[in-house]
Specification:
Elements lengths: L2 H5 L3 H6 L5 H15 L6 E5 L5 H8 L3 E6 L2 H7 L7 E5 L11 E6 L10 H14 E12 L1 H7 L3 E6 L2 E10 L2 E10 L2 E10 L3 H11 L1 E7 L14 E8 L1
Parallel strand pairs: 1-2, 1-4, 2-3, 4-5
Antiparallel strand pairs: 5-11, 6-7, 7-8, 8-9, 10-11
Helix pairs in contact: 3-4
Length: 241
């Protein structure tokens, strides 16, 4: 079992990240859909949807949404929100997506770069390309490699729900690795996250090889211009030719 299969399916993962800013996320998605000029009833896939908060908000905004995630526990949780225009399913993003063609695919908040092999990364782009309508959009919201390297904090402590998490970050080759240590339920736990520090050039090469054209790069959730040295995010907008 790969690290993301075990870690993402634990209640501790969701506890650690329970402080995520919903207001910022909803503002970002509102700005994003406005910029793309996606009309109401557009079909959108939220790829790696987690607990479904972005899928639900997109659906409330008038879109027909399919949320996909590898975590069975997350999808079981998400299904309470289903309706005629909001569905959820378990899916590995490396595999072909069995769905009618869609207008856009969103992969948000660094939900990519988990795989050891470049071929797996390329499979994600190909599966997204194949499920999009001609002229459809792929939004890949990723970390900015340069910013991460310059602003890494080696050690920190976070308290959530009575549990203290010790977070240790380091760069190993082309990856940023986050080790997570904590005590809970009478046991010592250790999980880790490992994400590739993909360059702009690598991401674009994967996209171009599949037939995408990169239209824009934003540097933050306010959709400001991307600056390699200072932007906290690298939000790529691709279009299917």
């Amino acid at each position: 079992m790969e690290w993301f299969e075990s870690w993402f399916d634990t209640p501790y993962y969701h506890l650690l990240y329970s402080n995520r800013d919903y207001t910022e996320a909803e503002s970002f998605i509102t700005k994003l859909t406005a910029d793309l000029q996606l009309p109401p009833d557009s079909r959108i896939i939220d790829l790696a949807c987690g607990k479904g908060r972005h899928s639900v908000f997109l659906n409330q905004s008038g879109y027909n949404v399919l949320g996909l995630d590898l975590s069975r526990q997350s999808i079981e949780f998400d299904r309470q929100f289903e309706n005629q225009t909001l569905k959820f399913d378990v899916h590995d993003m490396r595999n072909p997506i069995e769905a009618d063609p869609v207008d856009a695919v969103f992969n948000l908040f660094t939900s990519f770069g988990y795989f050891d092999h470049a071929d797996d990364d390329k499979k994600v782009f190909q599966s997204v390309y194949n499920v999009l309508k001609p002229g459809g959009f792929f939004v890949l919201d990723y970390l900015n490699e340069e910013y991460v390297r310059k602003n890494i904090i080696p050690e920190s402590f976070i308290e959530r729900g009575g549990i203290e998490f010790k977070i240790c970050k380091k760069i190993e080759g082309r990856h940023i690795v986050k080790d997570i240590y904590f005590e809970a339920d009478g046991k010592s736990h250790h999980f880790f996250e490992k994400v590739k520090l993909h360059t702009l050039e690598t991401i674009n090469s994967y996209a171009a090889d599949c037939g995408f054209e990169r239209m824009k790069i934003w540097g933050d959730y306010q959709l400001n211009e991307f600056k390699k040295e200072t932007s906290p995010r690298c939000i790529n907008l691709f279009k299917k030719k």
